[in-house]
Amino acid sequence: MRRDQKAHVVTTHPDWWDEARPEIDEILSVFTQELADRLSAPSRNIIRNKNPFLFRMRTNEDASQFADTAITAYLSSSEETKFGKVLERIAVVTCRKGRNGRESGITNVDLEYDEGATRTVVQVKSGPRWGNADARRALARSFNSTSAVLRQNGLTPICVEGICYGKSGIRDLGTHVRITGDAFWEEISGSPRTGLSIMQLIGEHAGNGLYERRAAAKVAMVRYLHESEIAVNGEMQWDRLLELVMA
């Protein structure tokens, strides 16, 4: 970082942050360790089930570049889905600490919390493009049914489709409201600082040995490429890759 650049650091966390942080730390540590474990896989396994034609489209003749691309593709194949689950688990913790919320036993509801006679029920989605039109209609029907049951029990329902990232905002869809990005984290935790606090904590975990493990995996990959004659003097032999991957 240049001297004229300033990191955006949270100086004031939500009041409940010290209680929530150990649980969020544990969630992030488990995810980071899973990534590290994946990087320990044999180089052959990393490239075995990947599309060799797509590799050829993405890279030039350089074995080092191929190794970077192969490792990134290997990690990314399940990383986004798994990290979406991580965000959903973090949402449960922040709601419990910030709103005295709880995981819900209602079908298709992840979280719920009360303010007087009003009960807010939330289905958490990691990102804005979580499902097709049928899935979204099914969510609306589910919220309609949940609202009817809550009214029968003398409660005023608020149904929320909560999106962990995306352009911050609130949209009334009739059957429920869709709350996205920072607005979502503020809603379930009661604090406008929650999203930034979580981002800072994730940053503290980001280097947690992964850079070193990835560098080691790249060295092992380049060695494997040469030992298997998929690369010769640093240049990729694509016919040899095709032979080994598709045999």
Summarize the entry for a quick read:
This protein has nine helices and eight strands. The protein has 247 residues and is α/β, with parallel strands linked by helices.
Explain the layout of strands and helices.
Blueprint: H1 17-38, H2 43-48, H3 52-58, H4 63-99, E1 102-103, E2 111-115, E3 118-125, H5 133-152, E4 156-163, E5 169-172, E6 177-180, H6 182-189, H7 194-206, H8 210-227, E7 231-232, E8 235-236, H9 238-246
Parallel strand pairs: 3-4, 4-6
Antiparallel strand pairs: 1-2, 2-3, 5-6, 7-8
Helix pairs in contact: 1-4, 1-7, 4-8
Protein described:
By secondary structure, this protein is α/β, with parallel strands linked by helices. The chain has one domain (17-246). The chain contains nine helices and eight strands. The chain has helices at residues 17-38, 43-48, 52-58, 63-99, 133-152, 182-189, 194-206, 210-227, 238-246, and strands at residues 102-103, 111-115, 118-125, 156-163, 169-172, 177-180, 231-232, 235-236. The strands form two sheets. The protein has a six-stranded mixed β-sheet, with helices on both faces. Strand 3, helix 5 and strand 4 (156-163) form a beta-alpha-beta unit. Helix 1 packs parallel to helix 7 (194-206). It is elongated, with a radius of gyration of 23 Å. Residues 1-6 have low confidence and may be disordered.
